[in-house]
Protein backbone atom coordinates (compact mmCIF):
# COMPACT_ATOMS: atom_id res chain seq x y z
CA UNK A 1 0.00 0.00 0.00
CA UNK A 2 2.77 2.45 0.88
CA UNK A 3 4.56 1.66 -2.36
CA UNK A 4 1.38 2.49 -4.29
CA UNK A 5 1.01 5.81 -2.46
CA UNK A 6 4.70 6.64 -2.96
CA UNK A 7 4.38 6.07 -6.70
CA UNK A 8 1.26 8.25 -6.91
CA UNK A 9 2.99 11.29 -5.40
CA UNK A 10 4.31 13.85 -7.89
CA UNK A 11 7.96 14.75 -8.45
CA UNK A 12 11.23 13.16 -7.51
CA UNK A 13 12.33 11.68 -4.21
CA UNK A 14 12.98 15.02 -2.49
CA UNK A 15 9.58 16.43 -3.44
CA UNK A 16 7.82 13.21 -2.46
CA UNK A 17 9.53 13.26 0.92
CA UNK A 18 8.53 16.89 1.43
CA UNK A 19 4.91 16.09 0.55
CA UNK A 20 4.87 13.11 2.93
CA UNK A 21 6.31 15.23 5.75
CA UNK A 22 3.81 18.02 5.06
CA UNK A 23 0.85 15.63 5.01
CA UNK A 24 2.06 13.95 8.20
CA UNK A 25 2.34 17.34 9.90
CA UNK A 26 -1.16 18.29 8.79
CA UNK A 27 -2.55 15.00 10.11
CA UNK A 28 -0.78 15.39 13.46
CA UNK A 29 -1.97 19.01 13.80
CA UNK A 30 -5.54 18.01 12.98
CA UNK A 31 -5.46 15.30 15.63
CA UNK A 32 -3.79 17.54 18.22
CA UNK A 33 -5.97 20.63 17.79
CA UNK A 34 -9.31 19.20 16.61
CA UNK A 35 -9.82 15.52 17.37
CA UNK A 36 -8.15 15.19 20.78
CA UNK A 37 -9.81 18.28 22.34
CA UNK A 38 -13.19 17.05 21.07
CA UNK A 39 -12.53 13.55 22.39
CA UNK A 40 -11.08 14.46 25.81
CA UNK A 41 -14.38 15.20 27.62
CA UNK A 42 -15.88 12.01 26.24
CA UNK A 43 -13.19 9.64 27.54
CA UNK A 44 -13.38 8.72 31.22
CA UNK A 45 -9.97 8.91 32.84
CA UNK A 46 -9.25 7.69 36.31
Describe this structure in words.
With 46 residues, the protein is mainly α. Helix content is 74%, strand content 0%. It contains two helices and no strands. The protein has helices at residues 2-8, 13-39. The longest helix has 27 residues, at 13-39. The mean pLDDT is 93. The chain crosses the membrane at residues 12-35. Keywords: Membrane, Transmembrane, Transmembrane helix.
Please write out the topology:
Elements: H1 2-8, H2 13-39
Transmembrane segments: 12-35
Keywords: Membrane, Transmembrane, Transmembrane helix
The termini sit apart by 38 Å
Count the beta strands. 0
Oligomeric state as shown: single chain
- What pattern of helices and strands is seen along the backbone? HH
Rg over CA atoms: 16 Å
Number of helices: 2
Poorly predicted runs of 5 or more residues: none
Question: By helix and strand content, what is the structural category?
Answer: mainly alpha
Portion of residues in helices?
over 70%
What does the overall shape look like?
elongated
Mean pLDDT: 93
Compact summary:
This protein is mainly alpha-helical.
Descriptors for this entry?
mainly alpha; single chain; 46 residues
Amino acid sequence: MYRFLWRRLPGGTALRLAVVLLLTGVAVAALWYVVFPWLAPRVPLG
